[in-house]
Amino acid sequence: MADDASDILEALIGGDSLSAPEYEALLVGRETLQARAAEAANELRLRYFGNKIYIRGLIEFTNYCRNDCMYCGIRRSNPNVERYRLTSEQIYECCEFGYGLGFRTFVLQGGEDGWFNDDRLVEIVSEIKSRYPDCAVTLSVGERSRESYSRLRSAGADRYLLRHETANDWHYSQLHPSGQRLSSRLRCLKDLKELGFQTGCGFMVGSPYQTLGHLAEDLTFIRSFCPAMVGLGPFIPHCDTPFRDLPCGDIELTLFLLSLVRLTLPKVLLPATTALATLDPKGRIRGILSGANVVMPNLSPFDIRKKYLLYNNKAGTGTESAEGIRQLSEELGSIGCEIVVDRGDALT
Ligand code: SAH
Known about the structure:
By secondary structure, the protein is of the alpha/beta class. The protein has helices spanning 5-13, 20-28, 30-49, 88-101, 118-131, 146-154, 169-175, 182-194, 212-225, 251-264, 274-279, 283-289, 325-333; strands spanning 52-55, 57-62, 105-110, 136-140, 159-161, 198-205, 229-234, 294-295, 338-340. The strands form 2 sheets. Strands 2-3-4-5-6-7 form a 6-stranded parallel beta sheet. Strands 8-1-9 form a 3-stranded parallel beta sheet. Strand 6, helix 9 and strand 7 form a beta-alpha-beta unit. The relative contact order is 0.17.
């Protein structure tokens, strides 16, 4: 094990696999290492993706949820949420609008809503794939059976996002009620990968009770799972959850983790997330300069955006919205990047 944090960082940049204690040493030494990590991560992004940034159109199609995640604003026991479900037609309209703007990936995200059983979701996925054969469909609808994932995959779904949230059992149990278990989340992630989905895991930075040791475990988990995508953004409290009074995750630490993920998995698809952009108006750009290569503007119908509030002040307008694509393009142009009209599949 390299003894000094900057030696450890150079080892990672050189392609070495790090242990959890080594990752932890990097996290402890973040302040002095961050600029070098970002520079090397940005170089890797350029090497594998050039100046191209992939865009994904996010369609938040239901905020009904059977789960009760402590951090999430649309948790089952929040009575103050006005619940909604988009109709199939509304979902297709979002795709139509997005296609015209240049989106070639649609991300269907929602709470775990039993109304969208396999038959209904299969029909929606098949319809989108038949209307837009040149587009990828990503699902982000939580934990389901292997059988269900298999049917969705056969219907044409290409990718699946399911953040592991934390790779530490104890920490997972602080963030979720006892019925929700890390082991079942990991079972889902394994199934998704085996079924041929381009699979994404990920976590929040600064979630309650999280330590740097937990984050080091997240990084070793990510290295061994080797996902096609990693979603990570700062925790932001929501006023109707048990975590309402807790502080937001740290922006700098989030940026550093983006760099460490890029250095760990050079070809990974790595979004600069909405949560990051919510805390920092320059969050998207700073995320990209730290190694991110994907942005996911909101394609949901305008009037429902304020109902899909996972956390307070969630950004959903301006460059966070599909309508803001021109402005986003200009911002990206200012750092020499450009949006591509492309499915933006995982590199093999
Ligand atoms: N029901 C789906 C989609 C969840 S929302 C699923 O379970 O996968 C997508 C992600 O938003 C979650 O995985 C979580 O990491 C993030 N999120 C939820 N609440 C948040 C909060 N308060 N702050 C920051 N991110 C949050």
